Amino acid sequence: MPDLYIDGSWRGALDERTREIRCPxxxxxxxxxxxxxxxxxxxxxxxxxxxxxxxxxxxxxAADRGDLLLRVADLLVRDKDxxxxxxxxxxxxxLVESEYDIDDIANCFRYFGRQATAETGRVVETGTPSVDSRxxxxxxxxxxxxxxxxYPLLQTAWKVAPALAAGNTFVLKPSELTPHTxxxxxxxxxxxxxPPGVANLVLGAGxxxxxxxxxxxxxxxxxxxxxxxxxxxxxxxxxGTVKKVALELGGKNPNIVFAxxxxxxxxxxxxxxxxxxxxxVCSAGARLLVEDGLHDRFxxxxxxxxxxxxxxxxxxxxxxxxPLISAAHREKVEAYVARGLAEGAVLRCGGERPTxxxxxxxxxxxxxxxxxxxxxxxxxxxxxxxxxxxxxRFSGEAEAVRLANDTIYGLAGAVxxxxxxxxxxxxxxxxxxxxWINDFHPYVPQAEWGGFKQSGSGRxxxxxxxxxxxxxxxxxxxxxxxxxxxxx
Length: 488
Ligand code: NAD
Known about the structure:
By secondary structure, the protein is an alpha/beta fold. The chain is built from 15 helices and 19 strands. It has helices spanning 38-54, 62-78, 80-91, 95-115, 152-165, 180-192, 206-215, 228-239, 263-275, 295-306, 327-342, 378-381, 396-405, 420-429, 462-467; strands at 4-6, 9-11, 18-22, 29-34, 121-124, 131-139, 142-146, 169-173, 199-201, 221-225, 244-248, 254-257, 287-291, 346-349, 368-371, 388-394, 412-416, 434-437, 470-478. The strands form five sheets. It has a seven-stranded mixed β-sheet with strand order 14-15-16-13-12-17-18, sandwiched between helices. Helix 2 (62-78) runs antiparallel to helix 4 (95-115), helix 2 packs across helix 6 and helix 9 crosses helix 10. The longest helix has 21 residues, at 95-115. The N and C termini lie far apart (69 Å). The model has no long low-confidence stretch (mean pLDDT 97). Nicotinamide-adenine-dinucleotide binds at residues 146-151, 155, 173-176, 205-207, 210-211, 213-214, 225-227, 230, 233-234, 248-251, 282, 383, 385, 411, 451, 456. Nicotinamide-adenine-dinucleotide binds next to helix 7 and helix 8.
């Protein structure tokens, strides 16, 4: 069965190219998928344009669009096992994590299914009896949705669900490394009754399959989640046609632990913050800031527990985290560690590829702790996107805030303290989009997700998630028109 979904039909690439997908946990073959080139993407854009301009989706009643999303949520639940398995095979992540993800994804479709009718416009009082005036929300048009490999279907859901709820048509391009759950989702959209041309899928590499999405004049909006360098390039490419651009980029997220923090909780969460999914999480707490008096005891305990974390494949029930996504990504992580050590960091654990049964064929890298780091090191400033924790010391509230904000990123971060007022003061001064107090990682679809500074230029989830995919139009109607006589 071909894998590109364009104008309501499944087909292969025009030049018949394919790509083999292998599981990063053991190199086993997961499948072969069709690989689009630029011409396929241009066809998908044309289909989305026609479906938008000729309808019926953009003018379908919001309640009906919402109902469709609710049906998709039910289908996701029905297919949860197959989806979770496919996600784990493509990414190498533990099956249990993929299962959580599918629940989140169904919730996301439910949330935007309900949001579709939450606010559809408002009447504006002008005070003039012969005028009625209202503000309405309309879909933006053709949306290009480009997603990464770390949470493939979750990141896709965060875009597809609001885009459809608002009445847009779209072309989705998931990461070339993790295509399978996007294919499955398109089958579910088809089953739920999405009209032809509304939802289109192209698979393939960014520079070929993805590039037309950023500069094609028939695309109205680009919503991108991925790395900073790609985001910058897409923003520049989209400028020629002044597209709306929503970017969800990287993070180098501070985790601030004050000496008065609850020790057990802060240790436990600092480990989850950085080592969950082997650090391949945009909100990973990869930058630990520990208050002076607590530093030695805290870092010793982190190192003790990090050294014991069990690595393994998606279906190994004893594994606590999995491999990195690719050989190239592991090399990038290794290069950051090497540079950190050259710049003066002290290696406390990890730092070397693990070997042994079940590990030799995958792209594993161990939980790694680099102590005595400082804010000028590249391993502290840049996103390694691997299981690498850098540790810096601070003394007092002001220094914690200063260090935490000394970064080009502003996605997420946390404050651990039993002093509620201090934690709130620090949270208020952090220039980041999501601040957790005495917690790390949770999110809810009702609250906006997005970054300050170079972590992004958009908001997914929450009411703003839907707003990204809407245009606001003011309609003024003169109910008693008569000549004004200005140029008689
Ligand atoms: P990436 O930038 O390499 O790729 C992301 C997507 O962009 C892929 O689909 C890729 O094929 C596509 N792409 C690449 N070049 C392109 C081009 N020229 N034109 C069009 N598309 C192009 O990122 P990645 O390695 O897949 O993902 C990891 C990054 O994603 C990390 O930096 C992480 O922080 C970030 N991320 C951010 C969030 C968030 O919510 N802010 C969530 C998840 C991941």
